[in-house]
């Protein structure tokens, strides 16, 4: 639960891209999910937040296979550790980058300073 006054950080979907803008771990849902979570942590950090400040995530996986959803979710949960934020996990037809299989968007809440 978030209590005010607070500062809210809304992230765009974190993607499985390396520093050069290339899709990593092509064909590998867990590998892409790991890169996505690293990129999400970086984006949050640049806003002064951390994964432990996340209050909601949406996880998108370009698949029709439930086992791919589970594989992505296990990586996301592993990165979140003991912090349990509500999340929506979706299988979608396609994502924005070539060979992209996973994307995660998040909302973080920080106490106002």
Fold and architecture overview:
The protein is of the alpha+beta class. Helices cover 29% and strands 27% of the residues. The protein has helices at residues 29-46, 66-80, and strands at 6-10, 54-62, 87-92, 102-111. Strands 1-4-2-3 form a four-stranded mixed sheet, with helices on one face. Strand 2 (54-62), helix 2 and strand 3 (87-92) form a beta-alpha-beta unit. Helix 1 (29-46) packs parallel to helix 2 (66-80). The longest helix is centred in the N-terminal third of the chain and has 18 residues, at 29-46. It is globular, with a radius of gyration of 14 Å. The two termini are 18 Å apart. The mean pLDDT is 95.
The percent range for strand residues is: 25-35%
Helix percentage: 25-40%
Low-confidence stretches: none
Biggest sheet overview: 4 strands, mixed
Query: Helices and strands, in N-to-C order?
Result: EHEHEE
Mean pLDDT: 95
Spatial strand order of the main sheet = 1-4-2-3
Total E-strand runs: 4
Query: Treating each run of at least 4 consecutive H or I residues as one helix, how many helices?
Result: 2
**Whole-number radius of gyration?**
14 Å
The span between the termini is: 18 Å
Which structural class do you get from the secondary structure elements? alpha+beta
Shape: globular
